[in-house]
Amino acid sequence: MSLSYLTSEYIIERNRERCIDCQVCVRQCANKAHRFDEEEQRVVSDDEKCVNCHRCVVLCPTKALCIRRNPLEFRENANWTPGAIRDIYKQSETGRILLTGMGNDRPYPIYWDHILLNASQVTNPSIDPLREPMELKTYLGRKPEKLKVENGRLAEKLPPQIELKIPVMFSAMSFGSISINACKAMAMAASELGIMFNTGEGGFHKDLQKFGKNAIVQVASGRFGVDTDYLNTGAAIEIKIGQGAKPGIGGHLPGEKVGEEVSATRMIPLGTDAISPAPHHDIYSIEDLRQLIYSLKEATNYEKPVSVKVAAVHNAAAICSGIARAGADIIAIDGFRGGTGAAPVRIRDHVGIPVEMALAAVDTRLREEGIRNQVSLVCAGSVRNSADIMKAVALGADAVYIASSALIAMGCHMCQKCYTGKCNWGIATQDPYLVKRLNPEIAAKRLVNLLNAWAHEMKEILGGMGINAIESLRGNRLMLRGIGLNDRELKILGIKAAGE
Ligand code: SF4
Ligand code: SF4
């Protein structure tokens, strides 16, 4: 194919008055969008190679660079948008599935932004978190229906729990899809904050194992790196059935990315493709899932809670009811805005449902069936700030998973090119030169700062409602009101409209 019909999406503007031709941008751009022109003796740029990751803009010492969207416009057409036309050009040139990274960016309703939180006025006075104790600690795992107490002591062993100092965890991101330095940063931050990180499906890198008591180890369809030592090194185990960004499909890490460390961690031969099948080949029913849950409990002497992660899909409530009955201690529901290192664009953008709806439907169903306390619910899929967390908890979540927010805190600029392996921020890459750009200590500090800031905000919001413990907010939908929602949406969310 000789001629591409695609034009550059971005334009690199270099302010010649400011540029000192120091070549920082040349070294920083893994896409080679900048180069030093020997003839002209100055730095020049190639717009077509730019993916708008902002690395050069942020690091340019004289702030000489600006990246703009190419103003080239197709004739206005509400149906044939520029994106739809570009995708056809791309596919007719390559014959390939279009890939993308990060979460669904289509303009579907974001229900978090249609839900408002309550605050106390006059009665049930608000609590000042600077003066009064305020508890954000929570425990994930099966809760007993009653406590048996003898002589003032618990007479029975409680089911295994994981303790979270704040109701937030780092969601599954595997070594292989992200760099070891990004993994280290989340492990260090989780340890400092008293929360959990999740290994993802890529095994447990040897350098991370010292953080085992803050780790959830994942068992996915590829079973990469899974053996009894792996299962026993973590604080909890998670069976990954689905991922919000790509429900119903598996994963594929190309052989060229399976270097020595990825190969050792995943326990697969060097240079082979790491294929995660779409289904678990031993799970075709809830009964099969139950067998796996109990095999994992057996392998860890019933000392670790077992979580099951599912993508939010149409019949999430019935599926999660089955998972609770199958013996899971925790269910993580991953909404369709959840991030990914690589997913087909059409799947990411058109499959699944918003986590707000799925979470509310699951919590309602488990309550109606009287089995809500048998599992903890974790809400995942684009939790962006402390207000989203409070809304998720009031809708029924015990805790949330964050991933994109954590990556953004570490430097991600949402260019959505994670699948290329050329992340200029050292996050979604295995290139040793790029990986070194992410200092794990600095990234961990940024994560700790972010979550400490969110914890302060959560206490303020809780205090404003007159509630002094996060667990008292869980499922308390009276603290929520909907705005701009129709009756059906309000009914599914189980909340009243603003003003009611
Ligand atoms: S890809 Fe990133 S680093 Fe390269 S030119 Fe574009 S914004 Fe700058
Ligand atoms: S992780 Fe890196 S490649 Fe992925 S969206 Fe963020 S900046 Fe871009």
The CATH superfamily title of the largest domain: Aldolase class I
- SS content category: alpha/beta
Helical segment count: 16
Which residues sit in consecutive blocks of at least 5 with pLDDT less than 50? none
Would you count the extended β strands for me? 23
Average pLDDT score? 96
Bound molecules: iron/sulfur cluster
Order of strands across the main sheet: 11-21-20-18-17-14-13-12
Question: What's the Cα radius of gyration?
Answer: 24 Å
CATH class of the largest domain: Alpha Beta
Helix content: 25-40%
Largest sheet: 8 strands, parallel
How does the overall form come out from the CA principal axes?
globular
Strand content: 15-25%
Tell me the CATH architecture of the largest domain. Answer: Alpha-Beta Barrel
Termini Cα gap: 61 Å
CATH fold name of the largest domain: TIM Barrel
The total number of structural domains is: 2
What is this structure's SSE topology?
Blueprint: E1 10-14, H1 24-28, E2 34-37, E3 42-45, H2 55-59, E4 65-69, H3 82-94, E5 99-100, E6 115-117, E7 138-140, E8 149-150, E9 153-154, E10 162-164, E11 168-170, H4 180-193, E12 197-198, E13 215-219, H5 228-233, E14 236-240, E15 251-253, H6 260-266, E16 274-276, H7 286-299, E17 306-311, H8 316-325, E18 330-334, E19 343-344, H9 345-350, H10 355-368, E20 376-380, H11 386-395, E21 399-402, H12 404-410, H13 432-435, H14 440-465, H15 470-473, E22 480-482, H16 487-493, E23 496-497
Parallel strand pairs: 11-21, 12-13, 13-14, 14-17, 17-18, 18-20, 20-21, 22-23
Antiparallel strand pairs: 1-4, 2-3, 5-19, 6-22, 7-10, 8-9, 15-16
Helix pairs in contact: 4-14, 8-10, 11-14
The protein binds iron/sulfur cluster (2 copies).
Residues 12, 28-29, 31, 33-34, 50-57, 67, 424 line the site of one iron/sulfur cluster.
